[in-house]
Amino acid sequence: MAGMDGIKVGSLTMFNFDLTKSLTKKADPDFMAKIEKIKELEYTKPKNLEDHPSQKLYAEVVVDGKTVAKLYNSGVMETSNAAYGKISKLDSVSDPQGSGPALAQQRAEEIAKALGGTVVMSKDALTPAQWAKVPPVEFEVDYAAMAADAARESVEARDGSAETLVKTQIIATQQNEGAPEEPEEETHSVVDEFLEFASMSYEEKVRAMILKSAGVTEEELAAMSPEERAKIEEKIREKVEEAVNNGEFA
Predict the structure, then answer these.
(1) How does pLDDT run across 95-116, given as a tens digit for each residue?
(2) 70 part of a folded domain
(3) Where is the domain boundary, 146, 178, 212?
(4) Which of 24, 43, 46, 166 could cross-link 146 (Cys pair, CB 3.0–4.6 Å)?
């Protein structure tokens, strides 16, 4: 259709409020009611529109046996893109005045003249007097669709939250599995040190005492330069030989 400018839909009561101001107010007892009204408008649709007199055919414009335009009691015009390109500059098309059968008649006559066609009236055509008595189109809120969509959105939100939670748990598990385990804190008592020392051979005991007196561990000894390590190893060898010569090495 070229437009819906001619439909008589009656007077719709539309509320007008500054949403921004409402959102900034800390206390607005009507705020939720306004939000609900907005939701209702999204689901508002004409009631039994197909049966309304405004939607009935007023006339057709026929050229060479083919219908090139349809006019409805509301004044609305229906035509092909090709035909519209030829009639788009007509006064009744580019700048329609009024509505109803009067507009439909004006458009039908101008289109027929421009395209060399004829106007064929419909049995459902209304006169201006009849049109004046036609009740406005009624509108109704589709509460069933509104409730169904609300339920669907609730399920999607719940599933989305659950999915996010599962993904978070999976990521946390993967991170924990991939992270190196923290070494347990070692507890090494004096008793443990004594038992460890007692289990050593005499040579190992001499070696341990020399390293301890030098303030060096086996790990630090291994990390020393060859020259430094050789000096300490030589001292250990001398102490062991001295113990053997004195008969202390069992």
Answers:
(1) 888 889 999 999 999 999 999 9
(2) yes
(3) 146
(4) 43
